[in-house]
Specification:
Elements: H1 34-41, H2 43-49, H3 55-72, H4 83-95, H5 112-138, H6 146-169, H7 178-182, H8 185-188, H9 191-197, E1 202-206, E2 211-215, H10 222-242, H11 246-265, H12 269-288, H13 293-311, H14 314-323, H15 326-344, E3 354-355, E4 378-379, H16 384-410, H17 417-432, H18 441-459
Antiparallel strand pairs: 1-2, 3-4
Helix pairs in contact: 3-5, 4-16, 5-18, 6-10, 6-11, 6-18, 10-11, 10-12, 10-17, 10-18, 12-13, 12-17, 13-14, 15-16, 16-17, 17-18
């Protein structure tokens, strides 16, 4: 989709220059790569400074200014295919605020104003990441080559693996960031604020008997770490595939092999399922292209993984996690509350999440200093799909899913490595939304996958 300007899509518009340059065409304003490239390339630095996920809404400000400048210079501004679906979703988010004061059955009663901060924060992320999507899609090969963007995403997979290893060997590693120092104690002591500005290596949880570190760096939460692992892993493969250097390919293979260790140690079953979804999807795409050798490659890799699990303590870790489903009861409880809430307000939802009264066994069981996980669970905090249903109803859920589903359908004929990796990332997000929430960095990487697919369609095979 392109905003219509004189000259039309795909042409260079000109405007009359001033008297001193009469008859000379004014050069279109280029979009610099730095707002996006620096956010990705220096993400570990932003994390250490305490900016972390906040770097994306921060960078969205110059992106928006630069897009307006480009549009004012007479340059066409492209909008992503299916953008009407996404705009409908944003409208549903705003409209659902009308129900913010409602208290669904079984949830803690609060005034609408006390819920407004979370709503504003969530909407600001959706809006700023929308700017990021449009900006990434309007960058040209001269401004930010697709291969460079793929390399940046592959780099972030390496960062994810390194963060996972850090979480394993130094699970209690943490420090006070510069941004955290600047905040009042009453603000920085809140758990949610800590997840944004306080760098730490892992979340310490008791899932298989005894407290164990679960990798989180540099993404804030273990579940976000697992979600991003699945969204980014394909880009390392594509970057290595495009390189002519054997050392780069060898590094990618070693990195993928090493990544198994923190992936298993994370005790993250959603991550394990996500990896399986990505592998099976990619294999199916290649088989449909007539490249049946992929079947042998998958069998070989699967066999090597089984041997590694049997021959190392990793197998015991997997068995212990499968035998201890402590989170199953909580997830089932929250899914029931989300479905019940959806039934009470099916069209627009409730505008945001809600806290349950007590826990799943009794309304009298709630959070305390002795048991922080005993109750008052967040309805909609256990997966993007359940949050969409509960917070934004049918309209928001259909619009959100419709945008990404339309993208998969629109770009289904893209058989390039970028096309397959991008669609695999979006497919993995569909499975992940049953147990992971998308804000903020997972949605960043979903949008960048969409932007790469979009640019591939416009600019041709750049893989």
């Amino acid at each position: 989709m392109t905003l219509v300007v004189p000259g039309g899509p795909g042409t260079t518009s000109t405007r009359a220059a001033g008297p001193a340059h009469a008859g000379e065409a004014k050069r279109p304003t280029a979009l610099p790569a730095w707002p996006l490239a620096s956010a990705l390339a220096f993400y570990p630095v932003w994390w250490a400074l305490g900016l972390g996920v906040l770097i994306f809404p921060i960078m969205a400000a110059p992106m928006l200014v630069l897009l307006f400048r480009r549009r004012a210079a007479g340059r066409p501004l492209r909008l992503p295919p299916g953008f009407a679906w996404w705009m409908l979703f944003l409208a549903a988010v705003v409209i659902s605020v009308a129900a913010l004061g409602a208290d669904p059955t079984g949830t803690v009663a609060e005034h609408a104003s006390s819920r407004l901060v979370a709503v504003v924060y969530r909407f600001s992320l959706y809006a700023s990441l929308t700017v990021l999507l449009v900006y990434a899609g309007n960058l040209t090969e001269a401004e930010l080559p697709r291969r460079r963007l793929v390399k940046l995403l592959g780099w972030l997979f390496v960062v994810t693996v390194l963060g996972g290893l850090l979480g394993m060997v130094a699970g209690r590693f943490e420090f006070t960031s510069p941004v955290e120092w600047l905040l009042p104690h009453s603000v920085r002591s809140k758990g949610f604020v800590q997840s944004l500005v306080h760098p730490y290596a892992a979340q310490i949880m008791d899932l298989v008997g005894g407290e164990k570190p679960r990798p989180a760096a540099p993404w804030g939460y273990t579940n976000t770490w697992g979600n991003n692992f699945c969204l980014l892993m394909g880009w390392l493969v594509v970057a290595a595939w495009a390189s002519r250097r054997a050392g780069v390919k060898l590094f990618a293979v070693v990195c993928l092999a090493v990544s198994i260790v923190p992936a298993v140690s994370s005790l993250n079953r959603g991550l394990w399922i996500g990896i399986g979804v990505v592998v099976l999807y990619v294999a199916a795409r290649y088989v449909l292209m007539g490249k049946v050798w992929i079947i042998g490659a998958v069998i070989f890799a699967g066999g090597a993984l089984v041997v590694a699990l049997i021959a190392t303590p990793l197998g015991d870790t997997v068995t212990a996690r499968l035998d201890n489903g402590k989170s199953n009861g909580v997830r089932s409880f929250l899914i029931e509350r989300a479905v019940d809430g959806f039934a009470e307000s099916p069209v627009i939802g409730y505008g945001s999440t809600r806290n349950t009264i007590g826990g799943r066994n009794s309304i009298t069981v709630g959070e305390s200093s002795e048991c922080e996980r005993c109750g008052n669970f967040t309805v909609g905090g256990n997966g993007q799909f359940w949050q969409l249903m509960f917070a934004h109803g049918t309209v928001g859920t259909v619009a959100y899913l419709g945008f990404f589903a339309y993208g998969l359908w629109r770009f289904r004929r893209d058989r390039t490595p970028i096309g397959i990796a991008g669609s695999a990332a979006i497919v993995s997000s569909f499975s992940a939304m049953l147990w992971y929430n998308s804000l903020a960095t997972p949605l960043v990487f979903m949008f960048l996958a969409y932007a790469l697919l979009w640019r591939n369609q416009i600019e041709g095979d750049g893989s």
